Amino acid sequence: MSVLRLELDVGNSSLKWRYMRGGQRIDGGRINGSSDEVLALLKSGPAMVYIASVGSAARERDLVDVLSRSGVPFTFARSQRQCAGVTNSYADVGKMGVDRWLVMIAAYAECSASCAVIDAGTALTVDIVGNGGVHLGGYIIAGVGLSAKALADHTGRVRFAGDEKVSLAPGIDTESCVHHGKWLAQLGAVNAALEQAELAVGGKLNVYITGGDAPALLTLAGARAEQWRYRDELVLDGLAAVMAAS
Q1: Residue 103 included in any domain
Q2: Known binder of ligand: residue 122?
Q3: Which HAMAP family match (predicted)?
């Protein structure tokens, strides 16, 4: 029988986890990522832990400390020059966030064709993979939370709270102007990035979307997003593929 493994996607604001046995997902969810929460996950007895992390150095140190004390073997995934048919475009592959690398791996493994991968989290990233699995470049943009925070931190009179409604309608007060505006900026960036992606590959391409703000963007995109493929655990899917290829 296949051993139980724990897969962790460590982000800037939360930690996504799942148990896998062979190719079967046993359970999963999202936690803040405290030491006690990680210890609770280890109580189920995984034989190994696979990790994709873009969290802070302090967050990683705390995680390594917990895992080291538990005695469970663990491995961090790193961005690579090439894996699972995808070739990295960065001159220094170590400078690519591993989350971006893994979502490209997962998307290309599924479609085996040119694709654009949107990851709507703390940062909004869009990466383009051409036919043959070559990474053609991408974009990193502040996510909705960071966009609003930038206005709060760097303007003297733009003050807002409250209204978190996901909408593109013109605002009628400062709060709605800011909150609707941040979604307008996100969707506008995604649409522009996809236009550039189609130019880069010379035609239509498969579109994948993941991340905590993905459902909201799918709703806002409407009919345009009907063919987009939403994958809630795309980072973890890529993590599993990379570790299987190691």
Answers
A1: no
A2: yes
A3: Pantothen_kinase_3
79 marked among binding-site residues: no
Is 92 annotated as catalytic? Answer: no
Per the residue annotation, which of 62, 99, 163, 237 is the catalytic one?
99
- DSSP per position, the chain: -PPEEEEEEE-SS-EEEEEEETTEEEEEEEE---HHHHHHHHTT--SEEEEEE-S-HHHHHHHHHHHHHHT--EEE----SEETTEE---SSGGGS-HHHHHHHHHHHHHH-S-EEEEEESSEEEEEEE-TTSBEEEEEEEE-HHHHHHHHHHH-SS----S------SPPSSHHHHHHHHHHHHHHHHHHHHHHHHHHHHTS--EEEEESTTHHHHHHHHGGGGGG-EE-TTHHHHHHHHHHHH-
Q: What is the CATH number of the domain that holds 215?
A: 3.30.420.40
In this predicted model, what pLDDT tens digit does every residue of 204-241 receive, in sequence order? Answer: 999 999 999 999 999 999 999 999 999 999 999 999 99
pLDDT tens track for 114-152: 999 999 999 999 999 998 999 999 999 999 988 888 887
33 labeled binding residue: no
